[in-house]
Design goal:
The structure is a homodimer. With about 170 residues, chain A is mostly helical. Chain A is about 75% helix and about 0% strand. The interface between A and B is large, with 57 and 58 residues. Chain A binds a DNA duplex (30 and 30 nucleotides) through helix 7.
Chain lengths: ~170, ~170
DNA sequence: TCGAAAATCATCCGAAAGGATGACGACAAC
DNA sequence: GTTGTCGTCATCCTTTCGGATGATTTTCGA
C-alpha cells in the first residue's frame, strides 16, 4: 500500500498527472477543432495517430522516469534512517554500505553530492554521470565543485580519497 | 560515453525499443486496416486519438519504469563486483601492502608506472607527481597514458579503481 | 503558504588531463 | 653489436576539469 500512497498521494505526482491529463485533453480538443477548420488530408488518421502516439509515448517515458526518480529519492531517505540504527552492530561482511552520516552532516554534504561523489569514485566522467542521472553536465559540475569544496579537495581523485577516509564512500 | 552505452547499447534496451516500434507500427497498420473494413463512426478521430494516447502513455510509463529498473540492476552488479574483488586483497591492517605482481606482469605494468599510479591514487596532480619524482611533467603524463592503456582506463579515477580491483594498489 | 535549502542549468575562462607521435640514452639479453 | 625494453623528454592538439557567478525551479519544513 505504501507504494501507492507514495505515488498517488504525492502532491508532485498529482500535479504531473494533472498536467498529463490536461495536455491530453487539449490535444484531443485541438484535433477536433482542426478537423472543422482545416482541410483534412486523406488518410490523415494514421498521421494523427502516429503524432499522438509519439507525443504521448515521449511524455509517458518522461513521466515514468520522473516517477521512479522521486521514488528513488524517497527510498534513499528511508534506507538511511533504517540503516542508521543497526550501523553500530553492523557486520563488516555483507552490508550494502552505509555512509557515515555524521561526517556527511557536519560537512554539509547533500545526498545528491554524495551520489555524484560515488559515481566519481567509480571512474565515471562528468558527462557519463550526467547521462546516468538524467541531468546536464553543468549540474554535475556544480555538484562536483561544491562537494570538493566541502571535502577540501582540489581534484576528483583527492575527493575520492577523502570520501573514503571519512567513510562516505565504500 | 558509458552512460549512453548502458542505455543504448544494452541488448535488453534495444529489444524494448524494437518492441516499442513494432507495437507502434502494428497499431498504426491496424488503424489503417480497420478504416477500410469497418464502419467508422463520426468524430472517431478523437476517439482513436484518445485510445492511442492512453495506450502509448501506458506503454511509455512502463518503458520508463523498465529503463530505470535495468539501470539500477546494472548499477547493482557493478557494486557487487566492486565489493567482491577487493575483499580478497584486503590488507589485514598492518602489512605494508604487496601489490599483486601476477596481475602486474600479465598486464605488463612496469614498476615506474605502478609508482605513478600509486601517487595518482593518493590524489596528486601530474605536476605534483613530477616534482616528487624529480622528473618532468611530460614524463609523468607518458607513464600515465601507458598505465591507463594497460589497465583499460580512460581516466585516472578509473585507473585507480581498476588498480584497486586488481590488487595493484592499497 | 512562505522562505530557506537544494537541485538544476547556463556561460565563461583557465588549468589539468589525455592522446598521438617522435626522439634519445641506458642497460640487459641475445 | 644488434635488439628490445624502459625511462626520460618534447610538441601539438583535443577533451575534460575546476572555479566563479548568476539565475530558475523544486522541495521541504516551519
Amino acid at each position: 500500500m505504501a507504494g501507492g500512497d507514495i505515488l498517488l498521494h504525492n502532491p508532485i505526482m498529482k500535479r504531473h498527472v494533472l498536467i498529463f491529463g490536461l495536455v491530453g485533453g487539449l490535444l484531443i480538443a485541438t484535433l477536433q477543432y482542426t478537423e472543422y477548420r482545416f482541410v483534412i488530408i486523406e488518410h490523415s488518421v494514421e498521421l494523427y495517430s502516429a503524432l499522438v502516439a509519439i507525443l504521448f509515448a515521449t511524455f509517458g517515458i518522461w513521466l515514468g522516469l520522473r516517477i521512479t526518480r522521486s521514488r528513488e529519492t524517497i527510498r534513499e531517505t528511508v534506507v538511511v534512517k533504517e540503516v542508521l540504527v543497526p550501523a553500530e552492530a553492523l557486520a563488516p561482511s555483507e552490508a550494502p554500505f552505509a555512509p557515515n552520516t555524521a561526517h556527511q552532516q557536519t560537512l554539509g554534504i547533500t545526498a545528491r553530492e554524495l551520489e555524484i561523489l560515488n559515481l566519481i569514485a567509480r571512474g565515471f566522467s562528468n558527462r557519463e554521470i550526467a547521462t546516468q542521472l538524467f541531468v546536464s553536465e553543468n549540474t554535475v559540475k556544480t555538484h562536483c565543485v561544491r562537494a570538493f569544496d566541502k571535502l577540501g579537495a582540489a581534484r576528483r581523485t583527492q575527493a575520492v580519497l577523502r570520501g573514503k577516509e571519512l567513510g562516505l564512500l565504500p
